[in-house]
Amino acid sequence: MDDPSTSYTKIRVTRSITIPDPIKISRYRRLPELGPRVLFFSGGTALNSVSRVLKNYTHNSIHLVTPFDSGGSSAKLRKAFNMPSIGDLRSRLMALADESVTGHPEIYKLFTYRFPTDLKRAELLKQLEMMIQGRHPMIDSVSNPMRRIIRNLLGCFYDAMPVDFNLNGASIGNLILTGGYLNNHEHLDPVIFLFEKLVGVQGTVRAIVNADYHLAAELADGQRVIGQHLLTGKEVAPLASNVTDLFLSKSLDDYQPVRVKLRKKNQRLIEQAELICYPPGSFYSSLIANLLPQGVGASITANDCPKVFVPNQGDDPEQIDMSLNQSLQQLMRYLQAGTSQTAEPERLLNFVLLDSRHGTVSADQKHELWKAWGIQLIDVPLITPESAPNYDANLLVSALLSLA
């Protein structure tokens, strides 16, 4: 006979809430270590300001980050070591790091330090060698055993570094992560976990996949582009034609389609979240890219928590003249593609959060798309004169936590 004390009944409760909810926000502020598990599918730096505010209210946020960046300093590391991109992971880890007196400011300073761009290679090599030997001022201020661990990881990078590797402008945090990746059988999770402990990360950061893959996009004009850096409009001219399809490729040089499954660790993180957010940022290379692994949509469907989309304000080079409804259609398309069978839209998305009075995005609540999918528009103040055209991080965090 079943023990009554171990039997459970699962029900879904609906209730009215206030946004922002001052009582709930105050409670989270007092006890952030007990704050809600808010999960973000993101990449890039767009969510870093939100993350810095968020850690004041919850130390349990979850950030699934894309490792497909093919530009900037990450591109040099990827080319040298055939590895996933780690720049956006480091950036998010730093945004969530403990910056209080109980944290490790000397390690935070080291991990955010970049080598000068105007020094000769010999001088940069000398600085790196001094760090490995423990004689560099930035290393000298770090106490053991953390100092020994950092020196060891930098040594792993140094030993594997190609003779022609360009250290100008290199992020020390990226070099440490790379050394840890190489020292842990080319796996990201162990060194990310170590990084979290070294700087007291107040949340969980994971790469959506541990794979050396690249983004490939089909455009409306028939072109195909390979590489995240060709989509964002930051390093090359912005796209002149809309993205129609997004894929993963094994190679940056030629299109080699590949499918990858969501890891069980990340599956559990999604299924245990108390709120799932599709946040602002580069629409395809940050948000949609996170939904490409097989199993993401199914894991979202399995979780009965609220799901909210926060559309971009201002100009996103990846969304050429896309309306909110078109963005929703694309988002839903990729979410449903990740399920074994087409899931009901309400299992994948419940709310759209925006500020139509002060922002650039507006929506008609009576549109048939909204009716058919049962999406509720939450139109509240999220933008201030100081933050415009972007969201104010404090207002956005307050609104999201009120939904959790």
Notes on the protein architecture:
- This protein is an alpha/beta fold and 404 residues long.
- The chain has three domains: 1-66 and 260-404; 74-201, no CATH class; 214-259, no CATH class.
- Helices cover 37% and strands 11% of the residues.
- The chain has helices at 22-30, 48-54, 72-81, 87-95, 105-111, 121-133, 137-140, 146-160, 172-183, 188-199, 264-271, 283-287, 296-302, 324-337, 368-373, 393-403, and strands at residues 38-42, 62-65, 204-207, 214-219, 224-226, 243-249, 275-278, 307-309, 351-354, 376-379.
- It has a seven-stranded parallel beta sheet, with helices on both faces. It has a three-stranded antiparallel beta sheet with strand order 5-4-6, with no helix packed on it.
- Strand 9 (351-354), helix 15 and strand 10 form a beta-alpha-beta unit.
- Helix 13 crosses helix 14 (324-337).
- It starts with 21 loop residues before the first helix and ends with a helix.
- The model has no long low-confidence stretch (mean pLDDT 92).
The total of helices stands at: 16
Can you summarize the main beta sheet?
A: 7 strands, parallel
Instruction: Tell how many strands the DSSP assignment holds.
Output: 10
**Which value, in Å, is the CA radius of gyration?**
22 Å
Mean pLDDT across the residues is 92
- Strand residue content: 5-15%
Structural class: alpha/beta
**Which bin fits the share of residues in helices?**
25-40%
State the strand order across the main sheet. Answer: 3-2-1-7-8-9-10
Helix-strand sequence:
HEHEHHHHHHHHEEEEHEHHEHEHEH
Integer tally of domains: 3
Shape type: globular
Query: In whole angstroms, how far apart are the ends?
Result: 37 Å
